[in-house]
Amino acid sequence: MARNMETGGQRIFPTFQQIGDNLSNTGTSIVNSLPNKNELTKALRDPEFYSDVGSRAKNMFTSMHPMDQVALTTAPFPILGDVTGLAADARMFSQEPESRTPLNFGLSALGALPFIPAASTIKAFHGTPHKIDKFSMDNIGTGEGAQAYGHGLYFADSPDVAGQYKKLGQRSINDDQFKILADDTSGILQRVGIENPRGFLEESKRVYGDSGDAAYRGLQDRLTPKQIDEVFDAANIEAGNLYNVNLDVEPEDLLDWDASIRWQPESIKNIKLEDIGISLKRNPRVENEQYELVFGKGVSDLNISRNSISVKGMPEKIGDLGNHVTGKHIYNLIASNSNAATASKKLNKASISGIQYYDGMSRGAGEGTRNYVMFDDNLIDIVDPIDDIVNKHNAALDSVK
Fold first, then answer.
1. String of b and e for 218-229 (b: at least 16 CB within 10 Å)?
2. How many CB atoms lie within 10 A of CB 94?
3. Which range in 14-18, 121-125, 192-196, 220-224 is most confidently predicted, on average pLDDT?
4. Between 67 and 58, whose confidence is greater?
5. Which of 108, 145, 225, 313 is the most exposed, fewest CB within 10 Å of its CB?
6. Pair 2, 87: CB distance under 8 Å
7. Beta strand 354-358 with 254-256: parallel, antiparallel or unpaired?
8. Cα(137)–Cα(143) distance, integer angstroms
9. Which pLDDT value is given to residue 67?
10. Is the pLDDT of residue 301 over 50?
11. How confident is the model at residue 218 (pLDDT cuts 50, 70, 90)?
12. Is residue 325 classed as helix, strand or coil in its secondary structure?
């Protein structure tokens, strides 16, 4: 390759060896048009000055190694110039030891940047009433919103969408925080008719389970919205945070909830069904080779109106299922035969890092901003909290401990 480049340089660039001559001729023409008014003009009118510059340029170019000539000439052209430049640098480092300086190595590294894949991330937002140092899959179920699109950590393209969950959280309280209020001697809860806060909490847990928000749901049943506001105002429950995060994934790593198999990323189409726990059942009602994807007993919890989906042949990969199957079907097939948490773990193990779906503002149009459900908390990097509001909520509760 190097020999071909040298030959190319010798064939293509004799014209560039005439640069000096052209500079000299052009300079002479320009100077001849100048009026002879002062010494500066006299100096500029001296053709020897331009002839000397032209000769230097020509001599410098002709003295270069042919690979350097190629690199210099192709420099204005993206990619091609980078390739020839790196080739010339490699030749220089191998044949000229004195060129191996930190500066030269650094310049070569800059030339290689176009060939280094950029770290691909999705920039997203997360709204919450809580202070977060690191997102954790262990905390799923303790925040705002239902896990309607799979078991995972939820993020949004739009800060406005994420901000809605921050606002929801501004008027909420979890059971641990309620315990602190229950021991508050100022009588915040007693003033709204809850004489035995500890007993109220236990009763709420019996009704709603130990999910972390039983007390809040109990308050909603027992009190009017105005009374709940009085409790929250007294406890200074008003803080929330909107986090700016980087998701260390590409869209191709995510199962598209609404899209048919045809529009799923190629990497997902190639995943074997057995690797994600999807099995098929022969349909005895038809003579041809028709199989069914059968939803399990948990289908009633997934808002799915069917018990199975027919497919032709015996598919082995996701891409073989047919375009009437969507990402939602894939996820729910696994979840209905186990549970949502298991479905997310199986997909993550198969290199599907999460789910993407259009948010409420874009769903009707089928384009625009999306939400994301992440299955791996190690792929989430907090850039900064956009709203790092002083958490009066926690401060007030701490003050009554």
1. bbeeebeeeebe
2. 10
3. 121-125
4. 67
5. 225
6. yes
7. parallel
8. 11
9. 73
10. no
11. confident
12. coil
The pLDDT of residue 400 is 40
Geometric angle at alpha carbon 91, from 90 and 94, rounded to 5°: 85
| Top-confidence range, 266-275, 283-292, 382-391 | 266-275
Question: Is the CB of residue 375 less than 8 Å from the CB of residue 352?
Answer: yes
Q: Which residue has the higher pLDDT, 21 or 3?
A: 21
- Tell me: the pLDDT tens digits for 118-177? 456 899 999 887 778 899 998 786 555 557 899 999 999 998 888 777 755 445 677 777
Residue 288, pLDDT score: 60
* Residue 16 structure tokens: 């560039």
Does 261 have pLDDT greater than 80? yes
Share of the chain above pLDDT 90, in %: 23
Q: Give counts: helices (H), strands (E), the chain.
A: 16, 10
- What the block records as the tokens of 288 is 């041809």
| 56 token code pair | 């230097």
- Is there a contact between 311 and 290 (Cβ–Cβ < 8 Å)? yes
Task: Give the H or E element holding residue 241.
Answer: strand 241-247
Dihedral over Cα of 296, 300, 304, 307: its sign = positive
Give ∠ CA 340-316-332 in degrees, rounded to 5.
20
Q: Which residue has the higher pLDDT, 130 or 372?
A: 372
Half-sphere exposure of 127 (CA within 13 A, CB side): 20
pTM for the model: 0.53
- Rounded-to-integer distance, Cα 304 and Cα 148, Å: 12
Helix (H, G, I), strand (E, B) or coil at 311: strand
Q: Whole-angstrom Cα distance, residue 373 to residue 383?
A: 18
| CB of 42 closer than 8 Å to CB of 2 | no
DSSP per residue over 81-148, as a string?
HHHHHHHHHHHHHHH-GGG--HHHHHHHHHHHGGGSPP---EEEEEEESS--SS--GGGTTSSSS--T
Cβ pair 24, 57 in contact under 8 A: no
Treating both helix axes as pointing N-terminal to C-terminal, what angle do 80-95 and 2-12 enclose, rounded to 10 degrees? 110
Give dist(CA 398, CA 390) in Å, integer. Answer: 14
User: How many whole angstroms separate alpha carbon 152 and alpha carbon 126?
Assistant: 13
DSSP string, 277-310: T--EEE-TTSSSSEEEEE--GGGGGTT-S-SEEE
**Tokens 């770290």 map to which residue?**
119
